[in-house]
Amino acid sequence: MEAREEVEKILENYVNDINNIDPNTWSGTSREYFTKKATESITECSNVLSSQLTDLETAIEKYTSWKEANRYIQYYDDLLEKFQIPSPGRVDERNPNSSPKRVIDNYVSKRKSWVNKEAALRNEINTILEKIKTQKLEEKELTATDSFVKFYKKDYTDASYGNGTTIASAGGGPLAMAMVISTLTDKEVSPVDAANWSLEHGYRSYGNGTAWAYVEDYAKENGLNCTQSNVNADSIMTNLKEGNPVVMVIGEGTYTDEGQFIVLTGVTDDGKIEIVDPGSEEKSKQTYDLDLFLNEGTQQWIISN
Predict the structure, then answer these.
(1) pTM for the full model?
(2) N-to-C CA span, the chain
(3) What whole-number distance in Å separates Cα of residue 108 and Cα of residue 106?
């Protein structure tokens, strides 16, 4: 029950957890998203460790009391062993109300009190230590969206997209393609890179954002395969399960009040669709029924290596 051993066990568990992390878990993830997830993990780790150390401190305090109880038990054991009754009923001249039997009874009573206290403390300490051992970082299963590079419009309010506009106001297409290309390739393509390529090659459509032809052409420019079609349920589900993202233009409807680019990234076990919406980090945290995209999607691009 040494406190030092318990601390060493706790730290050893954390080291093992860290060493067992798949080095490819965050491969391709954007710096911003990796930083965010790393911060969340470190915070969670810190909170768990802090809770464990607080409990350990409590256990150490109780361990001190437990040792004291054991000393008193031994003390009264020694007294009872050494105490000899000179003659039955002999009265102690210094304390006429006392007798050897009463002294022994007093010792026995006090010893019993310390025995009960020792048992209670031992149970409390074991309970605390068991709690410490069971406190672990929550194991979270990564989804396709977790490992997908993410860029959001809100971070590009000052990045130009031509004619006085910005990527934040009109660059959904470049944002979507920057995410897809950065995820599927070893390249680090920023939304600014993607927007500049669109401008340089004439895909910027003022009043409409980005021309649809940009998606396929920019994908091929970066060595990717791209197939454009009307929205199709079978191709969406098949390709998402194979790890191929689907870039989609979703029109005005229940999801959005204006047309925009989004990326479908995966399928959950219960058939829900995972997405990254460059216009909304909050919407990107949710999952959706396929019917939403079948009803409100206007065009799709299957992109793969």
Answers:
(1) 0.59
(2) 56
(3) 5
